[in-house]
Recover the amino acids of this structure.
């Protein structure tokens, strides 16, 4: 079962998702397309510049393969301190 | 070398005192404390994080600092949860044989915490809350270290 998490501003657009990814969802770009089809609000939120994606707690800079074993986190721009 | 992310209010002086016990033969300690700014009518600042990932990312940034400066110790305490203006939000402490390394490493760690550590900040004014995102200045501050 894949886990999809949303942080910061993105947490207002979706709750965490735990479930099997559809067969055609093979990469992080596919995950974005799949989530965007499900919900227009989430589509707009995911398209906002500055968001980051972490797969299994590593930030990625380009689309990468994912499977049901992965945790995929979508994060709005980071702001600490 | 420690990272503490806590939802409890903390006393920066106590953090400094504890840190001092860990610095070995350092000749310089720099301890920075960040407070929630009481700007205008702000009533609260609320920080959220990504459990485990936030801690490991700060540890990673600390390890980068160790490669850049000869530190004998470093420590980061960062608040999450709801804070009132004036409350401590972050302590960054660094120790080295000489002052320059300690100053620079503390400055570096703060710049990275501002825009690279997985925290998210919401500002509340009365009934209104809004997300705070890094300012252009924060991004520029971090870029100073990229050469």
């Amino acid at each position: 079962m894949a886990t999809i998490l949303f942080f910061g501003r993105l947490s207002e657009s979706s709750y965490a998702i735990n479930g099997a990814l559809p067969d055609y969802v093979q990469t992080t770009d596919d995950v974005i397309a799949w989530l965007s089809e499900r919900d227009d609000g989430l589509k707009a939120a995911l398209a906002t510049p500055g968001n980051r994606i972490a797969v299994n707690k590593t930030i990625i800079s380009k689309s990468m393969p994912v499977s049901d074993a992965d945790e995929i986190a979508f994060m709005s721009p980071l702001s600490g301190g | 070398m420690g990272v503490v992310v806590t939802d409890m209010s903390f006393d920066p002086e106590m953090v400094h005192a504890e840190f001092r016990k860990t610095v070995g033969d350092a000749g310089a300690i720099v301890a920075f404390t960040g407070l929630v700014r009481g700007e205008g009518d702000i009533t609260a600042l609320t920080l959220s994080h990504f459990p485990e990932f936030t801690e490991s990312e700060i540890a990673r940034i600390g390890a980068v600092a160790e490669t850049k400066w000869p530190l004998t110790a470093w420590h980061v305490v960062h608040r999450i949860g709801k804070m009132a203006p004036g409350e401590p939000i972050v302590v960054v402490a660094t120790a080295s044989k000489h002052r320059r390394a300690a100053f620079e490493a503390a400055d570096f760690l703060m710049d990275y915490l501002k825009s690279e550590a997985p925290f998210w900040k919401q500002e509340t004014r009365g009934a209104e809350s809004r997300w705070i995102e890094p300012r252009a200045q924060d991004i520029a501050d971090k870029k100073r270290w990229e050469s």
In short: The first helix of chain A runs from residue 28 to 38. The interface with chain B takes residues 5, 7-9, 11, 50, 54, 57, 73, 75-81 of chain A (CB under 8 Å). The mean pLDDT of chain A is 95.
